[in-house]
TrEMBL record:
Leader peptide range in chain numbering: none
Protein name: Radical SAM protein
CDD domains: Radical_SAM
Alphabetic keyword roster: Iron, Iron-sulfur, Metal-binding, S-adenosyl-L-methionine
Taxonomic source organism: Streptosporangium amethystogenes subsp. fukuiense
Domain Radical SAM core intervals: 17-157
Pfam families: Radical_SAM (PF04055), SPASM (PF13186)
4Fe4S-binding SPASM domain boundaries: 204-255
Amino acid sequence: MAAHVPELAPVHFLELEITGRCQLRCGHCYADSGPTGSHGTMTTGDWEDLLACAPAAGIATVQFIGGEPTRHPDFERLLTHALAQALKVQVFSNLYRVTDRLWDLLDHPGVTLATSYYSDDPGEHDRITGRGGSHARTLANIRQAVRRGIPLKVAIVRLSDGQRAEQAYAQMQALGVHRLGPIDRMRGVGRGAATIGTGVRELCGQCGNGRAAVASDGEVWMCVMSRFLGSAGNVRTTPLAEILTGRAWQDLLIRVPRRNGAMACNPSSDGNDCAPAETVCEGDALILPTRWEWLIPLAGIG
């Protein structure tokens, strides 16, 4: 008997892992990225072609992720091209280095921002990222994003007992970061697999549900965290819309535990009793509203 394909939301959010290069050396990095990482085999033209056809494939929002997406030599060009397709854009950046020119692009009303933060203690944060001074740089740029009114989501990941994750969470609230995901844990993907192992229980259970990811070599995954389950095809040889309706994509969807149906589990509000994963992953639940919608819950706040 054929396995039942779960009823999921059509893919409208596309993660674009445009590079494996990053200034940081985080020991838990799900993408196994770092200073010597590759930009992959997707050319700038390949990415532009993908962005151009994305709306016809049902995509409304793209997330530039990596590695550190701003390390791609044509990042600004790709961001501008995405906006020209009337796509909403989220940039998931470590905020280690943001130039004045880049701030001007991030100020566009179609752009939102996301980052990771680990501790209010500079030494602890820098040990986690493997880069001295990263705490000071990231914190300064978080403050800058808040001052500029750029919608910002901060993901906090607990990697060990005693880590000042709760204090980091409180610090972000005090700074005016109003979009904070629940404190997450390290995932057994990428470098994290060496510590806790890889398996479907490391996933939040929403892989492929309204989302997909494209790797720097063009391979299509259900999300950046589910890469170990394999690819549904490659956008360099097959149109994205065809991949997302193909048999290989359906076969991948079947492999993810969906806990009483695809939408029954709400990882962003559970109480550590939700399988397969207790909370959302770092790259998950970061689809932000438009800036107008963003301001509505803040109305009346003095």
